[in-house]
Amino acid sequence: MTANHRSPQTKRSWRWTGSIVLGLALSGCGDDRPQALGTLEWDRVALPAPAAEKIVRIDVREGQRVQAGARLLQLEVTRTQSQLAALQAQAKQADDVLDELRTGPRSEDIAQARANLAAAQAQAADARAYYTRLQPLGRQRLVAAADVDRARAAAGHVDAQVRALQAALLELERGTRREQIAQGESAVAAAKAQAAAQAVTLDKLDLTAPRAGVVDSLPYRLGDQAPVGAPLAVLLVGDAPYARVYVPEPIRASVRVGQSAHVFVDGREQALDGTVRMIRSEPSFTPYYALIGKDAARLSYLAEVTLTGSDAMQLPAGLPVRVEFAQ
């Protein structure tokens, strides 16, 4: 069939298809404003597990809006309470030792040291007298030379004991050194700091919302025991959502922080106003050093556009968005 003998139905179909293609071409030529694609997001706050304890109570559900300070869930506290009690007892012991150092030696200890010194001095006098008597007998060979040597050694040993007891008595009489008191104070401070840290951990076992927001996720269920650092709850917080988009390289130079933008959310015909709050300086996807020529257009730069207006507060996270930047 030639072009001049086409049926009327075929001619109408061709005219309809041609009008669609022409409309798309005109719309593509007319809409040349810089735009980027991405998703709608909220600021997220993750609450990590402070200890590997079992979840014994959950007070909220996913999707629930909570105020700052609201209880979210409770972990088992028995073991942490026992550890805190042990650390508090150690801190009390260190504090008592410091008080003893500051008070100094007791008068009874000083009296006992003096008595021990007197006894040692008496033994020393007796040992020296015995050695003195034994010396002439040794010179006359009336006693063995070994006996004289043992008497001399015994006298020297007792004299050394006397000097040691004299030094110990002097130490007690002068009291505790400043350095010992400083060491005691440091030990008390360390013990109290450990107890305070454990008290903070105990307090964190009762998880509360740090900010007002919406409970986005509760990864663990009642009875689970999450490892330390695992997120027990994730909150969506902030005054307004933001569009997380990737700016193509050809329009990167025209996008700046503080610039106005129009955000088109999937499922809504009306655009929302927004402001660029952040744009990364480093590209994503293909590294810049591996690109030349036209391939540089494959680069993208992560940007965030804050939405304004009361309508944005009701939008959930994860919706596809398209952002047009004001020129």
From TrEMBL:
YbhG-like alpha-helical hairpin domain: residues covered: 81-203
InterPro entries xref list: HH_YbhG-like, UPF0194_transport
Keyword Coiled coil: yes
PROSITE patterns in the cross-refs: PROKAR_LIPOPROTEIN (PS51257)
Stretches assigned to coiled coil: 70-130
Localization terms from the record: Cell envelope
Gene3D superfamilies the record matches: 2.40.50.100, Helix hairpin bin
Keywords: Coiled coil
Protein name in the entry: HlyD family secretion protein
Biological source species: Lysobacter cavernae
